């Protein structure tokens, strides 16, 4: 059930995203932006740190006050 | 003046804790292990070298060992690591162990220094930790909280604590009466090599020695003879020549001659024939030799015995026999097992030390095996000569240590020790729970045994162990907590102390005959339970030793105790004793003078200076018996030797949170100790950087109005867990019965009791053995406003297949859209795979409410190349059924949330946040809570914090005065108006601020109901438990009710139709279960009938058939 709903049938062709457009991540130490493909070794090009944070949504978000 | 200086001297406690910290004992013991013990282990003769049986020339010698700073090696790059990085990346906070070795390679001697043999887990805050001696700024840079207790380990990203273990003390004689009314004196000898138990026991009128290597009890006279005591007279002299000893020993000596054992050889042969699993036949030694060996190395192994010189052992055995006879004549001489002076606490350093020694021995024996294998083969002349370094397996020590700490299973073959549950995951429920765990003592007693002795509070625990902080239920009294100022000693070298004792006039006992040893006025001196010698002037020895200790020439933790009744002096410098500091009193005057305190406040002096200058000293449990300790200044009399620094230190850090605990009924304080650890609050300054699986936080935590000294000392005021709620003690609406509380809706909207639930979810992209790996996949495109749920769950993903940071997710929403290759075995190239070769394996979010994705990061570690951690934060306002508690063991759930308009108010417009029913007070007798309210209320008008420190604190009279000055009632009562009618409430209402904690038990995490839902595959019955969306069980007792009532249809409906109905095909002729239209047994389709039965019943029949039991169904129509 779930399988049929995955990208491949809704999209004309399927891609692992890593092949399409690398997403950039922020190094946890120096703040430099890094781009990876999934096979890449996780290592900051600037400082060698190995923890990377994902950037926050670029567009605004509206939250319900709870 | 005396009042004033008394007020000031408790400044010593913050000074004490500033220097030592609450977990100093853990860190001290680990420091000792890393700096001293590890070197001793490696340099001990049994460990320091490896030899080969096949090549006499070969040797490997360890010259030194060091533990470096924590680091990690990745891609041949060694980089230092911080604890926080380990938490984030699931790494182990460990440092390389380096050795300097000297060995033979070919025919050359080679020296290598700095050779790594494994990784040692590093305790946070110890001497090898990067956090040691760092300022707050430096700690902040390493993303570490300055108030974190430390003292734990980080293994694979998980914080693990090695709990303090309580044990009976080793190498001491303990006299008891066993179940058969025999007197038993036993010693557990423990050395680095061996551990054994020797028992001297009375049986009838005779005395025997028992040991687990001997199959039978040996008459004591035979043991003496075997040890080389020739004359019977000598035996009497060793024990005592007084009438009672001669009488008691007579029968035992007679037994010797009945068995016709008169010489040493005969005695040894007798013992030799009683040795369990004797190796005499194998090794070709005689029984006599073997018996002598056993006596030398196994029996009382802690008493030194070189070259079969048994004199020390003979004397020790004499003492044991004497103790047995003493106890036979006077039952009062029996030792108390629960006396805390007879207990030792094992800490992380000692436990890891034992483990490391075991692993190091194994490491060496592995090397030896490898070396022997190489040298046993004929030498090949060509090629490089053999290098031992290749035989070293670095992983063994590393993994051995890591596994033990992460599972908590301490198994040491050498000591036959098999212990589980030594470590626990550090609880980060609140700051207090983490602190409470670090000061917790685990006892080795079985929980199931129904003995009250070890559970009840012992007089000797006073001041050392918190009387309030223990769990309720099965482990009550077995799990204890250290009091605030307790310090646990570490091992100290004995040589210096024994030398000192000898130069102070101790005479070696071997120079005395047995008779002289026991003459009056002569005190026998023991060092760590070992007889050292005798001294003729006990007071001189004791006073000089104490004087030397106060001068700081020997360790401040050495204890000297005089036991008058036994004519013994005990000097102790071993590890694991409990000590605490006292102010020294001389000639009715405290040695700590106001000027010293002034210097302390100016920062010119610290606590160690007080100790080094002999103003304050540490006493252990035994030495407390020799001291006359005044509780307060005014109690000092002529005999007083010491003064308590402050009485509130008898409580631990968790019980220290309670204001006015001395006004509460004792069990209430114990309840609060359990609840204080469940309160939501601030966990640390780095709480939003941490990645615990679940973290409960309080949104707007407040520091308590009514504080205690302990609160300030343990920094609870900086990391508080609760709110100062305005409470009116009155009845309201009937939704407040049974401890329920009424909450003001406006207060809750202002942030009262608002909690944050931080959850972390892991998903990793794995790499498989065939070179393939998981992949991330772009989510399906969502069309239209109302997509089906199976597509909608992908809504939060961005094009990377990972959830967008900042988005809102709900239960079932996908966080990481991952796919796994179907074929994980064969070698295929990744690029050749099609989409059908992957199956989806996405990670979903679970949680009751819509939740925000707070942050997401990716990291890697040597095991996992691509680790994705998603952290979500949910904000939860208090709701009906959430649990709250004050600091006095008074818990309650929210019974009703009322609009502020409907709450009662006073003429100033004040309105309570919470209404508490007054019925909570009379039976609970938590007077402390009433005082907290009055004190808090007066503090509000003064703009000052009030103090409810135990056995001190602000007086109710003073607080009342302040209230009156501010125009309020002296007793804290107010005139309130009814919120609904506006009329005056017909009574004065006791109201004011109380500190309330929100506990982790929240309705949202517990609420559960279901109609039709998942079923277990095997029985087709509904699943069990909330986590699996299970059904609500109609249990045996409920069933009994229905049977009793006769509601047969209801039972059938509940137990079958709503559970696991199954229509089975049964053959009427043979009574077997068949297929739909076919009975395989009768080979016929004629007699098949459909029968409704529970699926579990059908399953049972088939399972019975599988084990050759044929259940036959006899059908009849109703």
From TrEMBL, chain A:
Keyword Ribosomal protein assigned: no
Any single Gene Ontology cellular-component annotation: RNA polymerase II, core complex
SUPFAM superfamilies according to UniProt: RNA polymerase subunits
Keywords assigned: Metal-binding, Nucleus, Zinc
Primary localization class, coarse: nucleus
GO BP, sorted A to Z: DNA-templated transcription
Family matches, as SMART domains: RPOLCX
Compartments in which it is found: Nucleus
Gene Ontology MF: a single term: DNA binding
Stored PANTHER family: DNA-DIRECTED RNA POLYMERASES I, II, AND III, GEO11084P1
Protein name according to UniProt: DNA-directed RNA polymerases I, II, and III subunit RPABC4
Annotated organism of origin: Blepharisma stoltei
From TrEMBL, chain B:
Places the protein is found: Nucleus
EC number: 2.7.7.6
Domain spans labelled RNA polymerase beta subunit protrusion: 21-398
GO cellular component: DNA-directed RNA polymerase complex; nucleus
Principal location: nucleus
Superkingdom per UniProt: Eukaryota
Reaction(s) catalysed by this chain's protein: RNA(n) + a ribonucleoside 5'-triphosphate = RNA(n+1) + diphosphate
Classification via Pfam families: RNA_pol_Rpb2_1, RNA_pol_Rpb2_2, RNA_pol_Rpb2_3, RNA_pol_Rpb2_4, RNA_pol_Rpb2_5, RNA_pol_Rpb2_6, RNA_pol_Rpb2_7
Keywords: DNA-directed RNA polymerase, Metal-binding, Nucleotidyltransferase, Nucleus, Transcription, Transferase, Zinc
Family: Belongs to the RNA polymerase beta chain family.
Record protein name field: DNA-directed RNA polymerase subunit beta
Lineage of producing organism: Eukaryota, Sar, Alveolata, Ciliophora, Postciliodesmatophora
């Amino acid at each position: 059930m779930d399988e049929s709903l995955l990208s491949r049938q809704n999209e004309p062709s399927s891609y692992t995203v890593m092949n399409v457009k690398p997403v950039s991540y922020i190094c946890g130490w120096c703040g430099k932006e890094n781009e990876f493909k999934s096979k890449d070794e996780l290592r900051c090009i600037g400082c060698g740190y190995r923890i990377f944070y994902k950037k926050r949504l670029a567009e605004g978000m509206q939250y319900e006050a709870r | 003046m005396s009042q004033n200086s008394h007020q000031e001297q408790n400044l010593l406690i913050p000074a004490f804790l500033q220097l030592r910290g609450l977990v100093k004992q853990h860190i001290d013991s680990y420091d000792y292990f890393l700096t001293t013990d590890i070197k001793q282990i490696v340099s001990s003769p049994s460990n320091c070298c490896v030899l080969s049986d096949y090549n006499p020339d070969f040797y490997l010698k360890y010259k030194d060992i060091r533990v470096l700073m924590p680091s990690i090696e990745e891609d041949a790059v060694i980089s230092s690591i911080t604890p926080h990085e380990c938490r984030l990346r699931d790494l182990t906070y460990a440092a390389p162990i380096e050795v300097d070795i000297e060995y033979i390679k070919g025919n050359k001697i080679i020296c290598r220094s700095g050779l790594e043999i494994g990784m040692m887990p590093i305790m946070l805050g110890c001497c090898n930790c990067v956090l040691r001696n760092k300022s707050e700024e430096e700690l902040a840079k390493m993303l570490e909280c300055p108030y974190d207790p430390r003292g734990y380990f980080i293994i694979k990203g998980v914080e693990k604590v090695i709990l303090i273990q309580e044990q009976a003390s080793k190498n001491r004689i303990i006299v008891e009466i066993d179940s058969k009314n025999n007197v038993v004196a036993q010693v557990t000898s423990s050395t680095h090599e061996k551990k054994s138990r020797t028992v001297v026991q009375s049986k009838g009128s005779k005395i025997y020695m028992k040991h687990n290597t001997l199959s039978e009890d040996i008459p004591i006279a035979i043991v003496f003879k075997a040890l080389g005591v020739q004359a019977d007279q000598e035996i009497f002299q060793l024990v005592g020549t007084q009438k009672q000893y001669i009488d008691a020993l007579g029968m035992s000596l007679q037994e010797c001659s009945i068995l016709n054992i008169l010489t040493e050889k005969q005695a040894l042969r007798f013992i030799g024939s009683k040795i369990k699993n004797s190796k005499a036949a194998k090794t070709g030694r005689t029984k006599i030799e073997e018996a002598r060996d056993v006596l030398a190395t196994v029996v009382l192994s802690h008493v030194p015995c070189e070259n079969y010189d048994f004199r020390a052992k003979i004397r020790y055995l004499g003492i044991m026999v004497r103790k047995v006879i003493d106890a036979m004549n006077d039952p009062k001489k029996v030792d108390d097992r629960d006396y805390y002076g007879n207990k030792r606490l094992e800490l992380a350093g000692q436990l890891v030390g034992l483990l490391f020694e075991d692993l190091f021995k194994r490491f060496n024996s592995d090397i030896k095996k490898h070396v022997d294998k190489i040298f046993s083969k004929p030498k090949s002349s060509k090629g490089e000569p053999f290098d031992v370094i290749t035989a070293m397996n670095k992983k063994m020590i590393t993994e051995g240590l890591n596994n033990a700490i992460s599972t908590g299973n301490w198994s040491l073959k050498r000591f036959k020790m098999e212990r589980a549950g030594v470590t626990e995951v550090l609880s980060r429920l609140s700051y207090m729970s983490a602190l409470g765990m670090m000061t917790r003592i685990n006892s080795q007693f079985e929980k199931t045994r129904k003995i009250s002795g070890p559970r009840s509070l012992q007089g000797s625990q006073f001041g050392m162990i918190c009387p309030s902080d223990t769990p309720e239920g099965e482990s009550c009294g077995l799990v204890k907590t250290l009091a605030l100022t307790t310090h646990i000693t570490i091992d100290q070298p004995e040589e210096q102390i024994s030398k000192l004792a000898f130069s102070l006039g101790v005479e070696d006992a071997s120079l005395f005959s047995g008779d002289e040893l026991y003459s009056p006025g002569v005190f026998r001196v023991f060092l760590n339970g070992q007889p050292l010698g005798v001294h003729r002037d006990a007071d001189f020895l004791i006073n000089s030793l104490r004087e030397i200790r106060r001068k700081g020439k020997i360790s401040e933790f050495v204890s000297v105790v005089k036991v008058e009744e036994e004519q013994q002096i005990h000097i102790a410098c071993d590890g694991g004793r409990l000590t605490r500091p006292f102010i020294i009193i001389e000639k009715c005057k405290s040695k700590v003078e106001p000027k010293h305190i002034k210097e302390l406040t100016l920062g010119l002096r610290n606590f160690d200076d007080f100790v080094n200058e002999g103003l304050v000293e540490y006493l252990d449990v035994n030495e407390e018996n020799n001291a006359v300790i005044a509780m307060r200044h005014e109690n000092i009399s002529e005999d007083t030797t010491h003064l308590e620094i402050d009485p509130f230190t008898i409580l631990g850090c968790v019980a220290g949170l309670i204001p006015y605990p001395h006004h509460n009924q004792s069990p209430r304080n114990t309840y609060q100790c359990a609840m204080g650890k469940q309160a939501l609050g601030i966990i640390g300054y780095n709480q939003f950087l941490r990645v615990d699986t679940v973290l409960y936080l309080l949104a707007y935590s407040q520091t308590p109005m009514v504080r205690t000294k302990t609160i300030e000392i343990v920094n609870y005021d900086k990391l508080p867990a609760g709110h100062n709620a305005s409470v009116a003690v009155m009845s309201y609406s009937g939704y407040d019965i049974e401890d329920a509380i009424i909450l003001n809706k406006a207060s809750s909207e202002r942030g009262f009791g608002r909690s944050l639930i931080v959850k972390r979810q892991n998903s990793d992209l794995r790499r498989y053995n065939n070179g393939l790996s998981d992949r991330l996949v772009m989510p399906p495109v969502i069309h239209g406003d109302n997509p089906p749920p199976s597509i909608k769950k992908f809504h939060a993903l961005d094009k990377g297949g990972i959830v967008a940071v900042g988005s809102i997710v709900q239960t079932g929403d996908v966080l990481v859209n991952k796919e796994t290759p179907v074929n994980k075995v064969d070698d295929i190239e990744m690029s050749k795979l099609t989409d059908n070769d992957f199956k989806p394996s996405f990670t979903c979010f679970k949680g009751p409410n819509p939740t925000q994705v707070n942050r997401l990061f990716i990291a890697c570690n040597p095991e996992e190349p691509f680790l994705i951690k998603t952290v979500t934060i949910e904000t939860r306002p208090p709701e009906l059924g959430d649990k709250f508690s004050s600091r006095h063991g008074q818990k309650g759930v929210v019974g009703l949330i009322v609009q502020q308009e409907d709450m009662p108010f006073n003429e100033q417009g004040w309105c309570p946040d919470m209404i508490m029913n007054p019925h909570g007070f009379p039976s609970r007798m938590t007077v402390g809570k009433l005082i907290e309210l009055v004190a808090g209320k007066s503090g509000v008008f003064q703009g000052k914090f009030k103090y409810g420190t135990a056995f001190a604190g602000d007086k109710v009279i003073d607080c009342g005065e302040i209230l009156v000055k501010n125009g309020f009632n002296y007793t804290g009562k107010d005139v309130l108006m009814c919120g609904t009618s506006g009329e005056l409430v017909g009574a004065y209402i006791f109201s004011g601020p109380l500190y309330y904690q929100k506990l982790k038990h929240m309705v949202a995490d517990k609420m559960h109901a279901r109609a039709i839902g998942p079923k277990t595959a095997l029985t087709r019955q509904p699943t069990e438990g909330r986590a699996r969306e299970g059904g609500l069980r109609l249990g045996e007792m409920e069933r009994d009710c229905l049977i009793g009532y006769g509601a047969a249809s209801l039972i059938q409906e509940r137990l079958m139709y709503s559970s696991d109905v199954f229509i089975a095909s049964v053959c009427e002729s043979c009574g077997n279960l068949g297929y739909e239209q076919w009975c395989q047994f009768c080979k016929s389709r004629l007699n098949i009938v459909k029968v409704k039965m529970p699926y579990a019943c059908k399953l049972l029949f088939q399972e019975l058939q599988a084990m050759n039991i044929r259940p036959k169904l006899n059908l009849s129509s109703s």
